[in-house]
């Protein structure tokens, strides 16, 4: 049975990862087509959290650099997208690409500074980024719209996409669903590319640099270059996430990129399991779906609306504490441990 | 410059040696007021094992740190294949074929043994970031090539059967072999071994000695160790450091009988032993 399965899995890394992405796409279509527009918009929200979290887990989990400033990098992507879509002449995929490139360039600068810093100093520097960047939008209010921010024209589905969608599902393509598709297709592309990197040379040497700098340098690793590269990859993801966010919420405003956003991303990555892309997706799903689920439970149990709403952050906090106490490797770490134990027991009996 | 006869001088300088692969010439390193290395010269000839010994604090580790680029000498020059080496970073020296093992091993805990050794082979990769990002076939071929090199290095030191394990789960002597495999995977021309015998039993040490002798077919080895048996049996030449200065240099038998050495090092051991 195992041998048959192994023969079915292609040898080429790209084919293997592509296969995973196609399977993911099928699941995305099934889920988005069978859920309500409200759920669709929740999935759209999850997609941009997951894009940013996937990038962050590469930086923090694989390369060992902490960033409290990824919310600010998302802001760079969101504002770039908002500015480019203002005129109505730039197609949105181009705007998203530009957002990724601009944020990657910011990532070069921040990464170059970060490569020389460790631990609390790195946390402090990136925290300053998270606090400072939204302030720029207020300072340059002529261009960036100040506190109100910039409203974003969300892309409308082009004719061929709507036709193809109708052909496949015989259903209506709402605005929320279209945005969710954009977000999830972007997420799948990001996951594909990150999975390629992680399984290859870069994943290996990033982890080597994280585990022992001296030994890595003796083995010929250029520490600074590899650290900056990890930061740039991660920043490009954050930029894409910001682009999706801008289109989904139709707004790029300073209030959307507070330090809370940066911290939420970090908690998502940690709860899911550092360095794991499935973990980053799981953490993002918790971030988006847990609070409303808890609120619903609360009102179902007879709490008032305010009480139920207060319950959500409490439960999220409890989840965080429990994960840190019982599964410091995050959910994915826990699953891996159980899986290994299962194999060992299977082998001994 | 005329070459003095070896018998005329106790310390043939780096320049006087016929064709050293690697040489240090008049290297001085000061840390604040402390002189860690004082005018140290050493010439490692191709396909020889050159031992560096001396009591604790004699400057052996500092000397290695100079050789692999972690410490810049205040004065003095390093020579590589007859050319002076400008102040290079460790990563650049590694790219030229200088590999070093660490006393503390420095294995990557989050990587399997095979991955650890593949990092050592990294200078043989031929593809860049874009190939890896899109998982192009040539990136896959590159990975297979590195894996083959790693496999060969793991076989050479006998750790191929733990390739999929993580170093933390292995006993110390096996971890030492993994660290050696990682250095060998770089296919270095010069291998710097920092205390390769520490923590090994007598049998393992004999095996190590044989392994190191075997390496000289392909590379030059500079070795720092406390175990006199190993150093005396494995090395072609030995440089003795004491208080940062070279007090003797020569063949093992010559060094062993040198009164300055007995005084500085063996004498100390005799006193403690």
From TrEMBL, chain A:
This is Branched-chain amino acid ABC transporter permease. It comes from the Bacteria. It is a multi-pass membrane protein. It is found in: Cell membrane. Keywords: Cell membrane, Membrane, Transmembrane, Transmembrane helix. The chain crosses the membrane at residues 12-31, 43-62, 69-88, 94-114, 121-140, 178-197, 228-249, 255-274, 281-302, 314-335. One of its GO terms (cellular component) is plasma membrane. GO terms for molecular function: branched-chain amino acid transmembrane transporter activity. It comes from Prauserella flavalba. It holds the Pfam family BPD_transp_2.
From TrEMBL, chain B:
One of its GO terms (cellular component) is plasma membrane. GO terms for molecular function: ATP binding; ATP hydrolysis activity. The keyword Ion transport does not apply. It comes from the Bacteria. Pfam families: ABC_tran, BCA_ABC_TP_C. The keyword Transport applies. Signal peptide: none annotated. Residues 22-268 form the ABC transporter domain. PANTHER family: ABC TRANSPORTER ATP-BINDING PROTEIN, CONSERVED COMPONENT OF ABC TRANSPORTER FOR NATURAL AMINO ACIDS-RELATED. This is ABC transporter ATP-binding protein. The lineage of its organism: Bacteria, Bacillati, Actinomycetota, Actinomycetes, Pseudonocardiales.
């Amino acid at each position: 049975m195992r041998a048959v399965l192994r023969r079915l899995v292609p040898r080429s890394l790209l084919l293997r990862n592509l296969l995973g992405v196609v399977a993911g796409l099928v699941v995305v279509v099934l889920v988005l087509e069978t859920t309500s527009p409200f759920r669709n918009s929740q999935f759209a929200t999850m997609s941009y959290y997951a894009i940013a979290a996937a990038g962050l887990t590469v930086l923090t989990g694989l390369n060992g650099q902490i960033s409290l400033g990824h919310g600010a990098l998302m802001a760079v992507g969101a504002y770039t997208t908002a500015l480019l879509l203002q005129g109505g002449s730039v197609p949105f995929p181009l705007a998203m690409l530009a957002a990724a490139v601009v944020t990657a360039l910011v990532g070069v600068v921040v990464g170059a500074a970060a490569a020389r810093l460790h631990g609390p100093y790195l946390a402090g520097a990136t925290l300053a980024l998270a606090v400072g960047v939204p302030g720029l939008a207020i300072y340059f209010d002529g261009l960036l719209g100040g506190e109100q921010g910039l409203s974003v024209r969300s892309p409308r589905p082009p004719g061929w996409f709507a036709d193809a969608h109708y052909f496949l599902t015989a259903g209506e393509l709402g605005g929320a669903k279209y945005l969710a598709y954009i977000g999830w297709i972007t997420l799948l592309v990001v996951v594909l590319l990150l999975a390629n990197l992680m399984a290859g040379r870069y994943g290996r040497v990033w982890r080597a640099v994280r585990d022992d700098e001296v030994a890595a340098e003796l083995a010929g690793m250029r520490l600074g270059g590899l650290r900056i590269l990890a930061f740039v990859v991660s920043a490009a993801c954050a930029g894409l996430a910001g682009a999706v966010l801008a289109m989904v919420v139709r707004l790029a405003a300073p209030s959307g990129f507070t330090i809370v956003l940066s911290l939420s991303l970090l908690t998502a990555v940690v709860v899911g399991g550092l360095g794991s892309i499935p973990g980053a997706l799981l953490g993002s799903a918790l971030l988006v779906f847990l609070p409303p689920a808890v609120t619903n439970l609360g009102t179902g149990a007879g709490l008032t609306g305010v009480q139920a709403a207060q319950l959500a952050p409490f439960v999220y906090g409890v989840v965080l504490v429990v994960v840190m106490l019982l599964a410091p490797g995050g959910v994915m770490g826990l699953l891996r441990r159980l899986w290994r134990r299962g194999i060992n027991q299977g082998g001994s009996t | 410059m005329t070459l003095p006869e070896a018998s005329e001088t106790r310390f043939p300088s780096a320049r006087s040696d016929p064709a050293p692969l690697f040489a240090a010439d008049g290297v001085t390193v000061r840390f604040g007021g402390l002189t860690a290395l004082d005018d140290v010269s050493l010439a490692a000839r191709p396909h020889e094992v050159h031992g560096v010994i001396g009591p604790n604090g004699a400057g052996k580790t500092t000397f290695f740190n100079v050789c692999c680029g972690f410490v810049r000498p205040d004065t003095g020059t390093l020579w590589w294949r007859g050319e002076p080496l400008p102040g290079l970073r460790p990563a650049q020296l590694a790219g030229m074929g200088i590999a070093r093992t660490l006393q503390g091993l420095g294995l990557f805990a989050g990587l399997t043994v095979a991955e650890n050794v593949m990092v050592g082979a990294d200078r043989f990769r031929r593809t860049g970031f874009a190939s890896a990002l899109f998982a192009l076939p040539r990136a896959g071929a590159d990975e297979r090539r590195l894996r083959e090199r790693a496999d060969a290095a793991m076989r050479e030191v006998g750790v191929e059967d733990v390739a999929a394990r993580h170093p933390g789960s292995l006993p110390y002597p096996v971890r030492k072999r993994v660290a050696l495999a990682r250095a060998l995977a770089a296919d270095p021309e010069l291998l710097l071994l920092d205390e390769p015998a520490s923590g090994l039993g007598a049998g393992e040490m004999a095996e190590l000695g044989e392994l190191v002798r075997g390496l000289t077919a392909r590379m030059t080895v500079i070795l720092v160790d406390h175990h006199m048996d190993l150093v005396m049996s494995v090395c072609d030449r030995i440089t003795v450091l004491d208080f940062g200065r070279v007090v003797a240099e020569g063949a093992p038998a010559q060094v062993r009988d040198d009164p300055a050495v007995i005084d500085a090092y063996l004498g100390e051991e005799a006193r403690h032993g």
